Amino acid sequence: MPRTSRWSYEHRLLAGLLLVALPALLAFGAAAAFAFDAMWKAAAATAALAAVTLALALALQRRAVFPLYTLSNLLEALREGDYSLRGSRARRGDAVGEVVWEINALAQTLREQRLSVEEKSAQLTKVVAALDIAVLSFDADGYLTLANPAAERLLAQPFAALDGRSAQALGLAGFLAADAARVVEHAFPSGAGRWEIRHSRFRADGRPHDLLVITDLSRALREEERLAWQRLLRVLGHELNNSLAPIRSMAATVSKLIAAEPPPEDWRGDARSGLDVIGDRADALARFMARYTALARLPPPNLREVAFDELARRAARLEQRLDVRVAGPALRAALDPDQIEQALINLVRNAADAALTSGGDVALNWREENGALVTEIVDGGPGLPPSGNLFVPFFTTKPGGSGIGLVLARQIVEQHGGTLALENRADARGCVARLRLPMSAATPN
C-alpha cells in the first residue's frame, strides 16, 4: 500500500505557497533590520508583510482547490448515475477548463448511451413479452429471475408466484442439464404435448445465467395439419363434384327414359349415351383414386450410384412435342434413378406444356454449385400463375391435368434430402424449376 501523507492536499498547497514566499520574507526582514533604527519597527514591518503573504496564500489556495471540489462533485454525480450536472467553467485553452469540458462531454456520452440501452431494453422486453414462446432465465444458483407471459401460461402461474423459485421446484432442472436443442414429450401444468427445448448460457453482472426457451410444437403442427386438410379437402371436393355432378344428372335422365310410357323411339341410344357418360366419369374417379394411392404410397428411395447426365438426357428425350435443349457436365450421383427420372419427366412435361402455349422453348441443365448438384428446367412459357396452391395435391391450372406431377416431384426430391423450387425467370418470360440435391449424393465423374 502506498504511504499516505498526514497533510491534506490543501495543507500541502498552502505550505508550498508559504515556502515560495519565505525567501522574500527573510530578505525583507534582513533589509528592515538595517533600514530601521528600532528593532520593533523592523519586526512590525516584517509581521505585516508576513500577514499579507499568508492572506494571499490562503486566497490562492482557495482559488486552486475550489475547481477540484467542483470536479469531484461532477465525478460523484457520474458515479451515482446522474448525468444531468454540468461544470460551468468548461472552456478550451485553460487547464481546469479542459478537464471540465471533457467531464461534461463524458456526461453527455454516458447519458446518450444509457438512454439507448434503456430504449433497447424496453424494446427487448416488449418483444419477449409478445413472443408466443416460453422464455425463462435462471441465475447461477438455478433460481428463476425472468419469465415472459408465455412462460407464465405454460407454468399456469403469474411471475410473482414463480420469481425466485428453483428450477428443481418448477420441474425444469432436467432441461438445464442438456445443451443441445431437443424435442420432447412433456406434461406442463398448462397441458401435455410435444415441445422443443433450447438451452443456452449467458453472463450477467459477471455471473453465469441459464436461458431456457420452450416452444409448443403440438399447436403449430395441429394448425399446419388443419390447413393441409383444408387445402386437400377443397381440391378433393372439387374433383369429386366434377365427376358426381354429371353422373347424378345422367342417372336422373336415364331413369326418366326408362320410366316413360310409352318410351321414346330413340330411348336406347340416349340411355346408352348416358350410361357411357356415367362409365367415363366412374373411370375418371378410379384413375383419380389410383393417382392418390400412388402419391400416398411412394416408397423410400433406393440409392445407388448412377450417371446423372445420362439420366437427365434420357428424361429430356421422352418429351416428343418439342426439342429440349440439354447442357451440363458428366456427373455421377447416389440416388434412386427411377424416382429422379420420374421427377424430371414430370417437370419437363410441365415446362413443355407451358412453352407450347406461347411458342417458347425448354432447356434442361445441371451443374455443381456450393457443394450441391443443381438442376434447372427453364421454359419460355407465360410464367407461374398467381396461386399459392401449386404444390397442393390434385390442384391444377391445366385442362385435364392430374394435379400430382409437381407434388410427386417435390416429394421425391425431398426424400433424397434435396429441395424443389419454382420461380419466374428474371431474364425473360417463363419459369424456372430448380432442383437441388446435397453434395453427398453427387460427385464428379
Automatic annotation (TrEMBL):
UniProt EC number: 2.7.13.3
Main localisation: membrane
Domain of life according to the entry: Bacteria
Domain HAMP stretches: 62-115
Catalysed reaction equations from the record: ATP + protein L-histidine = ADP + protein N-phospho-L-histidine
Keywords assigned by UniProt, alphabetized: ATP-binding, Kinase, Nucleotide-binding, Phosphoprotein, Transferase, Two-component regulatory system
Descriptive protein name: histidine kinase
